[in-house]
Structures are given as structure tokens and as C-alpha cells.
Amino acid sequence: MTIEIKVPALGESVSEASIAKLYKNIGDFVKADELIIELETDKVTLEVNAPSNGTITDIKIKQGDNVKVGDVVAILKEGGASNNKSESKASNHSIENSSSQNFQFPLSPAPKKLVAENNIDISNINGSGKDGRITKGDVLQTISNLSNNTNSQNNSLSTKPVERIKMSKLRQKIAERLKESQNTAAILTTFNEVDMTSVMAIRSEYKDIFEKKHGVKLGFMSFFVKASIQALKEIPAVNAEIEGSDIIYKNYYDIGIAVGSPQGLVVPVLRNADRLNLSQIEKGITELGLKARDGKLTVADLSGATFTISNGGVYGSLMSTPIINPPQSGILGMHKIQERPMVIKGEIKVRPMMYLALSYDHRIIDGKEAVTFLVRIKELLEDPRRLVLDI
Predict the structure, then answer these.
(1) Which end of the chain is more exposed for a tag (fewer CB within 10 A), N or C?
(2) Residues 195, 246, 366, 383: which is the catalytic one?
(3) What is the CB neighbour count within 10 angstroms for residue 53?
């Protein structure tokens, strides 16, 4: 039986993906659930697996192609490995030959005409069609490459070493959303600084006990999440968004945690963070970070945050102006902890200080509210007992 392998559902509001990587070739035998193709959308990376045991008889796409939900990407002939080993070897041998000697297959009329008109040497073309046959698209791409090379020879930079790589769907979406944020929101950033002495003392004293009991390390992020939620409750505009001519105040707290991944910056969401204690927050952040690293984040993991926290300090950033993640109205930027001389009760003391930045949409949040928000976080972190007592 022959099975068409199609692009699966990609998630709400996502209809297109790109082929990130091909793991199998024509003629390869695959087992049920074995990875065949990796897709990349503007939000997540998805896997297309074999529905059953069989042999790949056709691959209809190549790496970098854009595909839509329901598109056929490969054909699978069901059957055991024993009957297909020789076919697989023969097919692979044919593919190898065709990649270097495409002329063994007669050209169809369309690519043949283009080859003749443009005096193209087909021995330099790697065919993307079935069994390595040269398609019209292959010839057009070759013509385009030759044209680009010719133009570059007339450019003074032609001798400079460059590498051109197509942006991933995720990177394109990041660029689009960041530019959308700057074009739409009236973004301002206000700064403050927090003395991390008390938080660091608590962490140092209890980190071993905490990890032994809860199975996760005690970091700084859980304190910032707790402090941010308390400040959001007191300054609700920072947890709101604009929709048309309305302001939507959200009485729940789904906090986006910006993390780096191999594909770029992603912001998975810690759901109902106001209901979590410090250990649950740390576990949630750890799980989301691992999923980001392994490319396992789902659309649901990345959708619906009400407020975002970004920690540039892990990369050494001393100060920055983070960009709002629309439709949110605020983002808190954490930075590197650095010892600085501070005047405390008339005396100069060395303290571990961190600059905080709040970028906010001035259309909905006034300057007084933004400053008050940051001051509240500063108070809570400099005296963490307030977090426990909710004062």
C-alpha cells in the first residue's frame, strides 16, 4: 500500500512552514514513527514521522521549501525491510549517479528549452526531481545563480568573503514582531537599580536545602517573577493590553520568560504564575528552558503571556532597553549583578547591584505608573520578607 505523507496541522493561526531538514532519501527504509522531515514555523519546530514501516519512494520537497498544511511531502510504500534492502541500495546508487551525471536522464521540454537558450552545462546541476532528474526550477535557479555571480564580479565587494543564509521562519517572525512593536506601541523605558544583597543571602543560605527538597536549583528568576506579579496586581495597567479603542485588564498572570534557543530568542509562558511557589516557578522555568533547547516548544507554550521578563544579565548585559512583545504593554529587563560602591546611611559600602529596565507602552501606562512599578519591585527584592508577608 502506498501512503502520502502530508504536512500536519501546524497550530492555531499557522498555515505555512519551511522544510528545515530532510532526514531520509528516496529508497530509504523507515520504521513506524521514525523521523523523516523537520518543519519550522514562525513559532515552533515540528517533526514529520513515518506512519508505518516502509520504503520512501518519492520526496516532493527539498530543504528550504515552503509548504502548507496538507501538502504532500513524501510517498511511503508500506512493507518490511527484507524486500526493500536491494531496492534501497539500487535507488541510492541511482541517486548518487544522477547527482553527478544528470545527463543520463532525458530532459523534459521545459528545462530542455531553458538549457538551450541559456547555454547551460547540465553536468553542474544537481537535479531535485525524482531520481535526481533536472526540473525547470533547477535550471531557473542555476540561471539566477550565474546572473548573481556575474553581477558580483562588477561589485567592489566581490572579493570579500561572505556567506548568505536564508532566515529561518522563527527569525523572520522575531524580526516582524519586534518591528511591529516599534511601529505600533509608544515605547518608553524607565530604569532603576536594586540592591541584591538580601536575595543573594537567602539564596546562599538555603540553596542546598532547597535543591535537596525540591530537586531544582534556587535561582534569582523566581524572586523576580514573584515580585513582578505583586507589582502587576498593584499597577494593573502593566498587565493590560489595547484592543482597538478598548483597554483589556487581565486578572490572571501568565508570565513570559525570554530564553535563548538554537533557533533564536523565544518566550515560553509560565501559566498562572501567581499560584506557584518559588520551587514550582523554578521547575516550570527549567522545563521550558529544556524544551526550548531541544526544539520541543509547542504553539501553546509560546502563546498568551500577559507580561514578559528578560534576563540579559546571563550574557553579561549591564543595561538595555528591552522591546515589548505585542500585544503586551510591558517587559522587565534584568541585568548583570555587579559590585558597586553605594552610600548607605552616610557610609560607602560595596553592594551587589543590578540595573532594572521597564519598557512600557505609553499609550496605556503613564510615567508615574511605570516608575511606581519598578520601585515596588525594588522594595520587594531588597526586603524579600515582603514577598512572604504580601506587604
Answers:
(1) N
(2) 366
(3) 17
Domain 170-389: CATH architecture, name and number where available? 2-Layer Sandwich (3.30)
Taking the C-alpha atoms of residue 386 and residue 376, their distance in angstroms, rounded to an integer, is 10
Active-site residue identified among 254, 362, 383, 390:
362
> Catalytic: 362?
yes
CA–chain centroid gap for 88, Å, is 36
State the architecture of 107-166 in CATH terms.
Irregular (4.10)
Distance CA 105, CA 164 (A): 31
Domain 1-100 has CATH 2.40.50.100: yes
d(CA 50, CA 355): 50
Q: Catalytic residue at 93?
A: no
Residues 6+ apart with CB under 8 A from 9: 69
Domain limits, the chain: 1-100, 107-166, 170-389
Q: Check: pTM over 0.90? Answer yes or no.
A: no
pLDDT along the chain (391 residues), means of 10: 88 76 90 88 80 92 87 88 45 41 59 77 75 78 72 56 77 78 91 97 95 95 96 97 94 94 84 96 94 85 93 93 93 97 95 97 96 97 86 70
